[in-house]
Amino acid sequence: MSLLFSPIQLGNVTLDNRVIIAPMCQYSAQEGCANDWHMIHLGHLALSGAGLLIVEATAVEADGRITPGDLGLWSDDTEAALAKVVQAIRRHSPITLGIQLGHAGRKASSRAPWDGGQQIPVAEGGWIAHAPSAVPHLDSELPPRALDAEGLARIKQAFVDSALRADRLGFEVIELHAAHGYLLHEFLSPISNRRDDAYGGSLENRMRFPLEVFQAVRAALPGKTLGVRVSATDWVEGGWDAGQTVAFAQALKALGCDFMDASSGGVSPRQQITLGAGYQVPFAQKIKRETGLPTMAVGLITEARQAEQILQEEQADMIALARGMLYDPRWAWHAAAELGGQVKAPQQYWRSQPRDQKALFGEIRTGQR
Length: 369
Ligand SMILES: Cc1cc2nc3c(=O)[nH]c(=O)nc-3n(C[C@H](O)[C@H](O)[C@H](O)COP(=O)(O)O)c2cc1C
Known about the structure:
single chain, 369 residues, alpha/beta, TIM Barrel, 8-stranded parallel barrel, 10 helices, 32% helix, binds flavin mononucleotide, NADH:flavin oxidoreductase, FMN
């Protein structure tokens, strides 16, 4: 029996299978508002048969966007724009929907990757970023402004407000973005956090703000399936590492975290990453083993049997894919065919079921959950 195509309980939500579409920034929104691109992009991924589709890093305030094109959820306008996309998906797909909520911290005000990704000067429409400390990501960049007590309170509230909007939109799963060198990760890592107040220095102090954010969102949405994506290591000597990640995950678990999503890197240009198939899986395994929390593995997992083996060996509970899903949006269908699993497919596409795969598509009709 395929584990990849068996259900999993995450908080109050049961996913049909353990194939997760990882959050992927599209840098294509206008003033934070979703548009036709998101309808097409998320619409096609909603037909993928994955157990969970996590919408891209969505900014909780305008200044928390990585690029001016980031999706946002900080106002009635941004909420209404995303509502159109979510409602269309709901009409045509039974997929479970999640959203990643984030704040770019010192990596805000950047150009889209296809425009080079550099910091945008204020004179060219950029803005001054906020971060734990006034330390830029790159020496060449304009330093961010260190957050004061008022700024911390504002951002914490922004996470809560966006989470409430996400809940109202009908997202069943919320993931807080504490990875890739963005704001919450910047608090965790001693590389970016040089504060000498209660939010910097010791591990306990560096975890304080991300935990406060988690706790505030949890308090606002007690029954919501809520998880956290972490960078399990900075890949820099003396930076954030797997041991600290486990301490963070344990603290999150005590506050009611439903799952962890184990990524890595992004806080320092000095990172030395050894890339390879499933290179981040050991981090998921460590978090899972030492906390017992349901954990997603992500990063260069591209093959159905590789994904299945990770689950069979209890290295992770779910498998998230990003680039592989863009390359082959029917990855889950093909993996189910290979592993003898089943996926939900739209009835309009049922005739595509291969002759020798009569059980591939579960009996599900449009709009039926
Ligand atoms: C186009 C693109 C956009 C991404 N945007 C996000 C994002 O919004 N949030 C995030 O946590 N990771 C983001 N990532 C990282 C992916 O979620 C994933 O962790 C990474 O690509 C490794 O998985 P893969 O080897 O399956 O692509 C992005 C990756 C890609 C390729």
